[in-house]
Design goal:
Keywords: Iron, Iron-sulfur, Metal-binding, Methyltransferase, S-adenosyl-L-methionine, Transferase
Radius of gyration: 22 Å
CATH class of the largest domain: Alpha Beta
Structural class: alpha/beta
Helix content: 25-40%
Strand content: 15-25%
Protein name: Fe-S oxidoreductase
CATH architecture of the largest domain: Alpha-Beta Horseshoe
Largest sheet: 7 strands, mixed
Cofactor: [4Fe-4S] cluster
Distance between the termini: 50 Å
Organism: Ruminococcus champanellensis (strain DSM 18848 / JCM 17042 / KCTC 15320 / 18P13)
CATH superfamily of the largest domain: tm_1862 like domain
GO molecular function, one term: metal ion binding
Bound molecules: iron/sulfur cluster
Number of helices: 16
């Protein structure tokens, strides 16, 4: 392999249509910043190009920077862009190309393409550094690699998150006008764990890192937070509220260090209900949003999803956060067996429980997952761009596709109008969103 002196790290745009949450939630490219930190340590020249925020195209960046190696990450919905950027890197610069990230870890065989040289199938970014240092392909344990058109498949291993370096946030700090979580702008990401110890049936997060939950020493986490020059922190673990003792330690350390910031995290309803007094303390140290998977409207669906939580628990969790003054972002699933009545009931439940923030995803069997096999004869699309939880990818059970989309968009419009009345989305152009919701109501499935 040629000598690697310059590396371009690419995070593709979320989508090329306006049907996404750009300008509402824009995520710091944390994964690339960990790699950037390792490259800096090694004295390798690097640059980041994030399609969410860049004003020049990836092709322009490639031509100007001429990298020896290009690393591209992304999720399922970005698959086409990831491959396109690898092809462009080959055509314009003759670069070595590496694909990594969440989608590659779970669906690496989909990346077996001529424009791709290596696929990182785990969180072990040190493998990339070894590759850059010239380690022979056959010694790279967590990399699939190509030789003369044949692919050598790697078996991923769990990664110990304690090995991660502190991210190099220089890219984030030069784009603080862009990275946000709703009104929290700028909002820096901090990761304290990989994977999730729960096994909800619809979720693919618990399969990451070979299904092994791994978390950082909480003292290191607080040290990192203290050093970030940003007052909003999004703890991006799939579930931050896992271990009561660890959370108590976190609260104590934040208090001791007198760190004053606002926090966003994911947390399950059963944890909130089990420790209401901890929620009060989290509020006091600055917890602002807790993103909670409420998922359904009845215990039948909760059981089918293996959520290990019931509707009574959901109701109590909403009340507890409401009483302590933390905003709950209630996350729901529009099941494929929904009727028009179910969509209307979902709106009524959200309203009756005074939940100001709610997000509804369409039930989506992830590509190459056991759930996908279960729905194989109902899959409607082969476009990975549709795997954004806003598109119907499998035939609904009780409504036509057109009727399903119609009711889904009516629900979104009703929730959005409610948010408008409450002023919770005042940072967006309301007119633009209403117009696009209405347009989609009639366009999809037609
Ligand atoms: S608790 Fe959340 S992250 Fe964990 S498996 Fe369930 S849905 Fe996935």
């Amino acid at each position: 392999m040629k000598e690697i002196r310059k590396v371009l790290l690419i995070h593709p745009e979320i989508s090329r249509t306006k049907y996404n949450f750009a300008g509402v939630i824009d995520n710091e490219p944390l994964e690339l910043e960990y790699i950037a930190a390792l490259l800096r340590e090694q004295g390798v020249d690097y640059a980041i190009w994030d399609g969410q925020v860049e004003r020049i195209s990836a092709a322009e960046k490639l031509k100007a920077y001429m990298p020896d190696l290009v690393y591209v990450c992304g999720r399922t919905r970005q698959e086409r862009f990831m491959l396109e950027y690898c092809q462009a890197a080959k055509d314009l610069c003759g670069s070595v190309t590496v694909i990594g990230g969440l989608h590659a870890q779970q669906c690496y065989a989909r990346m077996y393409q001529n424009c791709v040289d290596y696929i990182l199938v785990s969180f072990d970014i040190f493998q990339l550094i070894q590759l850059i240092q010239g380690t022979p392909s056959e010694q790279l344990e967590d990399m699939c690699w190509r030789t003369e058109g044949d692919w050598h498949t790697a078996t991923p291993k769990p990664f110990d998150i304690q090995r991660l370096p502190l991210p190099d946030r220089s890219y984030f700090l030069t784009h603080t006008d862009r990275y946000r979580y709703l009104e929290l702008l700028p909002c820096a990401h901090v990761r304290t764990a990989y994977c999730c110890p729960y096994r909800c049936s619809f979720c693919s997060r618990n399969k990451l890192n070979c299904g092994v939950y791994t978390c950082r020493d909480i003292q290191d986490v607080v040290e990192e937070i203290a050093r970030i020059p940003c007052e909003n922190i999004y703890l991006v673990d799939d579930d931050f509220l896992v271990d009561e003792k660890r959370i108590r330690q976190f609260i104590n350390l934040i208090r001791e260090r007198q760190i004053c910031k606002r926090y966003v995290c994911y947390g399950r309803a059963d944890f909130i209900v089990r420790y209401p007094e901890l929620m009060q303390q989290l509020k006091e140290i600055g917890f602002y949003y807790i993103l909670t998977g409420l998922e359904a409207l009845d215990d039948q669906h909760m059981t089918a999803y293996n959520k290990k939580c019931d509707m009574d628990c959901n109701t109590k969790a909403v009340e507890i956060l409401h009483n302590v003054g933390i905003h709950m972002m209630g996350m729901f699933i529009a099941d494929l067996d929904f009727t028009g009545k179910d969509f209307r009931s979902m709106y009524r439940w959200i309203k009756a429980h005074k939940l100001r923030h709610a997000a509804v995803s369409i039930f989506t069997p992830e590509l190459d997952s056991p759930l996908y096999q279960q729905y194989a004869d109902r899959i409607l699309t082969e476009d990975p761009g549709d795997w954004d939880y806003l598109h119907v990818v499998a035939q609904p059970g009780r409504l036509s596709l057109r009727a399903y989309y119609f009711h889904y968009h009516v629900l979104l419009i009703r929730l959005f109008l409610r948010g408008w009345r409450d002023g919770i989305y005042d940072f967006v152009d309301y007119g633009y969103y209403i117009r696009s919701f209405v347009k989609n109501m009639f366009r999809f499935g037609g």
